[in-house]
Specification:
The structure is a single chain. The chain is of the alpha+beta class. It has six helices and ten strands, in the order E-H-H-E-H-H-E-H-E-E-E-E-H-E-E-E. It has helices at residues 9-14, 16-47, 57-67, 70-73, 82-90, 140-143; strands at residues 2-8, 52-53, 77-80, 100-103, 106-112, 116-120, 132-138, 144-157, 168-181, 187-193. The longest helix has 32 residues, at 16-47. A hairpin with a 3-residue loop joins strand 5 (106-112) and strand 6 (116-120).
């Protein structure tokens, strides 16, 4: 996987320090987006056709109490999008208490049932399908493995192709990695039917 950022030679000369600072942020953002995309794609491959409908509190309890192996729930997390988080954030238990609670160690993070960390990505990154919000439950580290075939590399060139003709410098970032499933029973894809929310455009909480 790779990406190219094109800048003029003059810009690189005059603002090298600021440009490199921007480049670091750009690389980090692109690398995270690439990994998120590959992880979600692999989860969809594993769980395709096996999605578990979730309407409320008890359905989520069934997933963690019965469907997932107890050894898996010990390291389980919840991965969802904005629509899924909106559903979970409003859901209450039989006593009327919200099932998402603040993590005492990280104020910006929420815990499902006070136990399982909830990670949220944008609806653009993890799209709703047929009006259903995805809610992935399980131990992602047990379900899939990321293989880094090559460390992240950066090449800078002003002589390739038409870059020389347009007085530009190309900054190319390359990353070679692969994601494969390990234990397909370590993760379950739940889905909640939503009626009033589409793809959404709210700010994502990405960890």
């Amino acid at each position: 996987k790779g990406g190219i950022l094109k800048v003029t030679r003059e810009l690189l000369q005059d603002t090298a320090e600021k440009l490199m600072s921007y480049l670091k942020k750009w690389i980090s953002k692109k690398a995270k987006a690439t990994r998120n995309f590959l992880i979600i794609k692999k989860i969809k491959d594993i769980c395709g056709g096996l999605e578990v409908p979730v309407k409320g509190f008890d359905d989520l309890k069934d997933i963690f109490n019965v469907m997932l192996d107890p050894a898996i729930t010990a390291g389980a997390v919840v991965l969802t999008n904005q629509s899924g988080f909106n559903f979970l954030d409003k859901l209450k238990d039989e006593r009327g208490d919200y099932i998402l609670q603040k993590d005492p160690t990280q104020s910006t993070r929420r815990l499902l049932f006070g136990v399982y960390p909830v990670k949220v990505v944008s609806n653009k990154t993890f799209q709703n399908i047929a009006g259903k919000a995805p809610i992935v439950c399980g131990d992602l580290k047990e379900a899939i493995t990321i293989f880094d075939r090559e460390t992240l590399t950066i090449d800078i060139s002003s002589t390739a192709g038409k870059l020389w003709e347009t007085d530009q410098t190309g900054i190319k970032v390359r990353e070679r990695l692969d994601i494969q499933s390990v234990d397909e029973e370590a993760v379950i894809m739940a889905e909640h039917l939503i009626e009033s929310f589409g793809s959404g455009a709210a700010v994502a909480r990405i960890e």
